[in-house]
């Protein structure tokens, strides 16, 4: 579904992704793990072409999307949920969802507000409230729900469990598994293993923008030294 081949990315002269390669299979949940500053956000942005790779390719459904404009990448079916919540604080929950609405995409779920309220019951109760009245966790949920209104085939979630209450983290795991059940593919980034363990089929560990491990959770469990070397436990 998604393939990165020797992707290199820079901020000015800083070389942040270094020949990074990995794949995300159709219908899988893949966790991109690494410490603070390992390059997770830059990887997400390089996939979306918000940071344009200088070398290497990003392919989506067999098509080379390197160099595309970010809006074209989104239109092709990739939905990006950044780490910082992006909601319209002056608009209501319902209006925020409306803003995200895109035409149906063949082979993908066509999300309606009612389907999303079923997926995010907290938002259903708050549908008439303005974005600014929501808790951090609810804003995070709304950001995801709004992205789903674009009917993506692949969702990129940048540190979805970061800075939210444990009970909401649990709901978040539940949401990700439901998305997988609906046939969506998910790539999420995380700093630690805990959340990934609840949802991921595969993990990719990066450090200094280079892949250090790719495999199943069971494979990783068999190599605690890798976990200790590259993740915050
Ligand atoms: P975090 O968990 O903090 O989000 P991360 O794994 O997502 O970390 P990135 O945000 O991709 O890491 O950052 C990778 C490296 O690139 C870090 O060394 C960071 O300081 C640097 N970096 C990130 N954004 C910029 C920028 N706009 N300009 C210059 N350097 C940047």
From TrEMBL:
- Lineage, top-rank taxon, reads Bacteria
Concerning InterPro entries, the annotation shows: AAA+_ATPase (IPR003593), ABC_transporter-like_ATP-bd (IPR003439), ABC_transporter-like_CS (IPR017871), BCAA_Transport_ATP-bd_LivF (IPR052156), P-loop_NTPase (IPR027417)
> PROSITE patterns attached here?
ABC_TRANSPORTER_1 (PS00211), ABC_TRANSPORTER_2 (PS50893)
Q: Name one GO biological process term.
A: L-amino acid transport
Keyword Oxidoreductase assigned: no
* Keyword Transport belongs to the record: yes
ABC transporter domain: residues covered: 2-233
Alphabetized UniProt keyword annotations: Amino-acid transport, ATP-binding, Nucleotide-binding, Transport
Question: What SUPFAM superfamilies does its record include?
Answer: P-loop containing nucleoside triphosphate hydrolases
GO function terms (MF aspect): ATP binding; ATP hydrolysis activity; branched-chain amino acid transmembrane transporter activity
Family, as annotated: Belongs to the ABC transporter superfamily.
Spell out the protein name for this chain.
ABC transporter
Origin organism is: Puniceibacterium antarcticum
